[in-house]
């Protein structure tokens, strides 16, 4: 049976996109700026399981990888 280990990280720095006039949907800047940090975890064998905005503060990310 495969065994897993898990990692929860918090990445700060969610910025509001000032060019979005319609406030009825998510007005926050693209998550693309997090790509580099997420790829660092991926290169260590971590698979992203969940990515969740935390109000205007940042994101919570849950990773897993096989326990070796």
Radius of gyration from the CA trace? 15 Å
Helix-residue proportion:
10-25%
Structural class: mainly beta
The side-by-side strand order for the widest beta sheet comes to 1-3-2
Query: Which segments are poorly predicted (pLDDT under 50) over 5 or more consecutive residues?
Result: none
Q: What is the overall number of helices?
A: 1
N-to-C series of helices and strands: EHEE
Shape assignment: elongated
Describe the structure.
Helix content is 13%, strand content 38%. The chain has 68 residues and is mainly beta. Strands 1-3-2 form a 3-stranded antiparallel beta sheet, covered by helices on one side. The relative contact order is 0.36.
Which terms would index this structure?
3-stranded antiparallel β-sheet, mainly beta, elongated, 3 strands, 68 residues
SSE diagram, text form:
Blueprint: E1 4-12, H1 35-43, E2 47-54, E3 58-66
Antiparallel strand pairs: 1-3, 2-3
Quick description:
With 68 residues, the protein is mainly beta. The protein has one helix at residues 35-43; strands spanning 4-12, 47-54, 58-66. It is built from one helix and three strands.
């Amino acid at each position: 049976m495969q065994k897993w280990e898990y990692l929860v990280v918090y990445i700060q720095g969610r910025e509001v996109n000032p060019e979005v006039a319609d406030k009825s949907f998510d007005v926050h800047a693209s998550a693309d700026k997090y790509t580099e940090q997420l790829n660092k975890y991926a290169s260590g064998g971590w698979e992203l399981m969940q990515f969740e905005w935390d109000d205007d503060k940042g994101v919570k990310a849950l990773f897993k990888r096989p326990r070796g």
